[in-house]
Amino acid sequence: MVMPFFVCENIQNHVLFIRKRSSGELSDVVTPDPNSILGLRIQHNWREKGNQSKWKGTVLDRLSVNPSLFMVKYDGFDCVYGIELFKDERVSNLQVLSENIVNNKIKIPAGAEELVGKAVEHLFEKEDGEKNEWRGMVLSRAPVMTNWYYITYEKDPVLYMYQLWDDYADGDLRILPEAVKRCWEYYAFGMLYWSWNWESRQGGRKHESNHDSL
Q1: Is the distance from CB of 152 to CB of 134 less than 8 angstroms?
Q2: What SS3 state is found at 188?
Q3: What is the pTM of this model?
């Protein structure tokens, strides 16, 4: 697994030309119903500082504490984004795509422990071949794309989403002892809670992933 250079950053600090345009079939040109887009593929334009790009992804969830905020997994990025799809003035031309959601089956090794709730050590390979260790906490299975897991890291308390069993099988994911988990989980959950609440107060601003763009 390759870890690119930048961790999830404020989208305002990175020009939005890095995403390629998508070419899926559109089910309708009209604005979708907010109550019926969960679990669907979408695309929309994002305009900021006079620049416009097109984003494409899967709507995973709608936050009950802030119903205008949707959790979206955009193609080519490993962060899960909280964004007010129907309120943010930077979002336009929101459309539902008639594409199937990619939810590849996972192979769980025989006798392996359940990952949810575990503190883990995750290895990421840089471009020079060197591997970095990232300690993290596996929070839950992701909704809709149920073969993926939500995870956050000590070095970067943002909500990420990976198919972790592939890395486990390759030796790049190790479950840490319970003593390590207890020492670390308070920090992980506390920082993630702060991050999401701050993001909600900012009106669902995006982070930009450190992974290669499409």
Answers
A1: no
A2: helix
A3: 0.69
